[in-house]
């Protein structure tokens, strides 16, 4: 049974009958969960397996299998974990979080999981069907990581260009962050207890009303050249929403995450204003700010 799919193909060829999707061991969907509660339980089961393996100093496949709704390890019959969780209109945050972590290493904070699952839900409700791992990433990148150089269509008022962080004589951080504002290069200058606080100060000086409510980060891989993912929950005006940044520098990733949240707030407000026939409340802010305009297109 180490290659159950080859056995199934042989049986289907000999009998000229398909194996039912939920047939024990060999069906296409026998190890697959669509329900949000099932997916959440499976995700927590895998996390518990990882925790137990770490405590015992063993690999996951060396400890006793124990994952809800999966009576055996799919690997034991030649299956992968890729099809264990599939996302459709029934799915919740558990399925989204599992795919983002298992396929792309993005360990989303819980409230971001909820926000992202709502984005995916709108997609599946509008178009029907399932969302695979690649489509999940496309949805995530379009929502949180636009214009990252991977072929996505860029959106958003602000885009990061470069940054420099120094220390003031009083021990506080001073940042100069170069961004583009609708294509026009400006420098945001701020001071604060840490680079993030200093960047927020620079945004305030430019007329952007934003506060950081929560923050988390992690490396996407091991090694000295590993990229970092930063997740920042922000209050932008009267809206609370998340931003995401990915960069080799954790500071740059944090700045990008804050700009992601600001861009998302403006985009949503602009859509609401367009639907109401009005003008976005964020559309004109910053034009008379205190940032330093810089001509040219280079950092």
Descriptive account of the structure:
By secondary structure, the protein is an alpha+beta fold. The protein has 2 domains: 31-144, Helix Hairpins (Orthogonal Bundle), CATH 1.10.287.1400; 158-293, Alpha-isopropylmalate synthase LeuA, regulatory domain (Double Stranded RNA Binding Domain). It is built from 7 helices and 7 strands. It has a 4-stranded antiparallel sheet with strand order 1-2-3-7. A 3-stranded antiparallel sheet has the order 4-5-6. Strand 4 and strand 5 (228-236) form a beta hairpin. Helix 2 crosses helix 3 (93-104), helix 3 (93-104) packs across helix 4 and helix 4 (110-127) packs across helix 5 (133-144). The chain is elongated. The N and C termini lie far apart (58 Å). Mean pLDDT is 84; it is low at 148-153 and 283-299.
Key terms:
2 domains, three-stranded antiparallel beta sheet, four-stranded antiparallel beta sheet, alpha+beta, Helix Hairpins, disordered C terminus, 7 strands
């Amino acid at each position: 049974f180490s290659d159950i799919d080859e056995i199934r193909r042989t049986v289907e060829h000999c009998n000229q009958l398909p194996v039912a999707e939920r047939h024990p061991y060999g069906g296409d969907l026998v190890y697959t969960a669509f329900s949000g509660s099932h997916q959440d339980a499976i995700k927590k089961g895998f996390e518990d397996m990882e925790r137990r393996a770490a405590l015992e100093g063993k690999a996951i496949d060396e400890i006793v299998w124990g994952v809800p709704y999966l009576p055996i390890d799919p690997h034991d019959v030649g299956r992968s974990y890729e099809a264990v969780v599939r996302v459709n209109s029934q799915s919740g945050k558990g399925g989204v979080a599992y795919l983002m972590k298992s396929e792309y290493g993005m360990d989303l904070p819980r409230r971001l999981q909820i926000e992202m699952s709502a984005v995916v839900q709108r997609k599946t409700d509008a178009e029907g069907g399932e969302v695979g791992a690649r489509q999940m990433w496309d949805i995530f990148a379009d929502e949180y990581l636009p214009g990252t150089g991977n072929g996505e269509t860029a959106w958003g008022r602000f885009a990061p260009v470069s940054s420099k962080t120094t220390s003031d004589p009083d021990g506080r951080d001073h940042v100069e962050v170069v961004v583009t504002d609708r294509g026009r290069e400006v420098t945001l200058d701020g001071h604060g207890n840490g680079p993030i606080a200093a960047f927020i100060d620079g945004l305030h000086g430019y007329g952007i009303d934003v506060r950081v409510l929560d923050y988390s980060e992690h490396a996407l891989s091991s090694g000295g050249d590993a990229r970092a993912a930063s997740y920042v929950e922000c209050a932008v005006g009267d809206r609370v929403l998340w931003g995401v940044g990915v960069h080799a520098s954790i500071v740059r990733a944090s700045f990008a995450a804050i700009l992601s949240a600001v861009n998302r707030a403006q985009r949503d407000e602009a859509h609401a204003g367009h639907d109401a026939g009005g003008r976005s409340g964020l559309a004109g802010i910053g034009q008379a700010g205190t940032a330093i305009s810089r001509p040219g297109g280079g950092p």
